[in-house]
Amino acid sequence: MERKRAMNELRMALTIFAVIAVFVVFRLPFMILYLVDPSMSKVDPFLHTLLIYIGSCSNWINPLIYSLSNNAILNTLKKMFSAKKIFVVTA
């Protein structure tokens, strides 16, 4: 029982670490650029837009991290993608 609790705590810690790491990696370039030039007047508009889009990637990666750390979702995905039967839809 104690081992299971320790594994759950480790899994939770890894999930939190992954969320923070993704946030830092994807948001840091924009934050550094903003610290260098707060008005963004010297920044190429394409680069500015690109960094905003890259920064927003962490918003759609977080649900993936949380869902992949959930055993019930992982087991369902394994069942879905390891199905041996092929279903054919006929009209």
TrEMBL record:
<keyword id="KW-1133">Transmembrane helix</keyword>
<dbReference type="GO" id="GO:0016020">
    <property type="term" value="C:membrane"/>
</dbReference>
<dbReference type="GO" id="GO:0004930">
    <property type="term" value="F:G protein-coupled receptor activity"/>
</dbReference>
<dbReference type="InterPro" id="IPR000276">
    <property type="entry name" value="GPCR_Rhodpsn"/>
</dbReference>
<keyword id="KW-0812">Transmembrane</keyword>
<keyword id="KW-0472">Membrane</keyword>
<feature type="transmembrane region" description="Helical">
    <location>
        <begin position="12"/>
        <end position="34"/>
    </location>
</feature>
<feature type="transmembrane region" description="Helical">
    <location>
        <begin position="46"/>
        <end position="69"/>
    </location>
</feature>
<dbReference type="Pfam" id="PF00001">
    <property type="entry name" value="7tm_1"/>
</dbReference>
<feature type="domain" description="G-protein coupled receptors family 1 profile">
    <location>
        <begin position="1"/>
        <end position="66"/>
    </location>
</feature>
<protein>
    <recommendedName>
        <fullName>G-protein coupled receptors family 1 profile domain-containing protein</fullName>
    </recommendedName>
</protein>
<dbReference type="InterPro" id="IPR017452">
    <property type="entry name" value="GPCR_Rhodpsn_7TM"/>
</dbReference>
